[in-house]
Give the backbone structure.
Amino acid sequence: MIKMIVMDLDGTLLNDNDENISPYTLSILEKCKEKGIKIVIATARPRLAAEEIIELIKPDFSILNNGLLIINKNKVVIYNKLLSLGMLDEIDDKYLEYIEAEKMDAIEIISKDQNIALSEIAAFGDSFNDIEMIKNCGTGIAMENAEHAVRRFSKDICGSNNEDGVAKWIERNILKIENKTG
């Protein structure tokens, strides 16, 4: 049984055109919350760049800066791993997102805090920094538009970020609602 859903933002939950979330996806996430399923976003974005999306989704937890920062739904910092300015000067910008943090480390912190086993977590992603969470959470789902390596480690593949792939997968597999048309 899935008790927590973790989702990357760019290329996963957000569409490519206007980096927004559809009303349909928001309604599916709200139904999950009503059922007691924890909603978590996990992004490499810093807090300021994710603030508008956090306001829109109102997740139970936000993993930011690729795992360096975790805030709860009340925007209280529950984990913060700061890099010193000296360290930042020594790190080439292109490697910064891979230094000192993993989304998976933050997921483990939240899962222990909430007493949710990794096997009870569904994780959605599309890029290399999502591989560990897709490999290690009970149900790792790659986006149709995901990098090949990410798809290789996933247990399932959902539609693309531009087709509400996350919401449709959740609706079919977690909420068990069938779309009836015609």
